[in-house]
């Protein structure tokens, strides 16, 4: 988050500017800009500034300005495996993480062929019938960020002795 303001003129000059966030002093600057990092995502903060002269009392606080931080946008999705072979009746859990780690980690799972393999909202794939399916893992906050997992389903082997 970055703030900029117009310089103020005082007889004797300005020593520095004091910046307040939500009514609490968070620092001083000699210039007319202030940058702060490490703030919570999607949170509104209220800022004010006052001039500290070289001589005399500080100026009153400026008018309050509200700033709302943005959420970190997802840039990618990592999955533990990009392809998996299962037998009919088998299950497999797709583990997915969104990058960067500060982005919303919620994802959706969809199967291209639910007749071949279904997938639950938690990423549990169930092999239904022989064939292939693609499971798409997409970011809930930015659907264009996605990865696919190729699922191949084979008939189970016949029981031993048959």
From TrEMBL:
Give residue ranges for domain Fibronectin type-III. Answer: 1-72
Note the InterPro entries from the entry. Answer: Big_2, FN3_dom, FN3_sf, Ig-like_fold, Invasin/intimin_cell_adhesion
User: Per the database entry, which stretches of residues form a coiled coil?
Assistant: none
The domain of life for this entry's organism is: Bacteria
Pfam families listed in its UniProt record: Big_2, fn3
From the Swiss-Prot or TrEMBL record, give the protein name: Fibronectin type-III domain-containing protein
Identify the species of origin: Bacillus nakamurai
């Amino acid at each position: 988050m970055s703030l900029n303001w117009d310089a103020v003129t005082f007889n004797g000059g300005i020593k520095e500017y004091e910046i307040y966030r939500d009514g609490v002093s968070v620092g001083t600057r000699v210039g007319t800009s202030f940058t702060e990092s490490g703030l919570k995502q999607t949170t509104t903060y209220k800022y004010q500034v006052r001039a500290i002269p070289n001589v005399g009392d500080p100026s009153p606080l400026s008018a309050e300005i509200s700033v709302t931080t943005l959420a970190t946008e997802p840039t990618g999705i990592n999955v533990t495996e990009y392809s998996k072979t299962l037998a009919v009746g088998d299950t497999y859990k797709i583990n997915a993480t969104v990058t960067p780690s500060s982005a919303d980690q919620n994802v959706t799972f969809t199967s291209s062929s639910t007749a071949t393999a279904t997938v639950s909202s938690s990423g549990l794939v169930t092999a239904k019938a022989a064939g292939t399916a693609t499971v798409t893992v997409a970011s809930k906050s930015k659907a264009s960020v996605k990865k696919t997992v190729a699922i191949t389903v084979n008939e189970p082997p016949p029981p031993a002795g048959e």
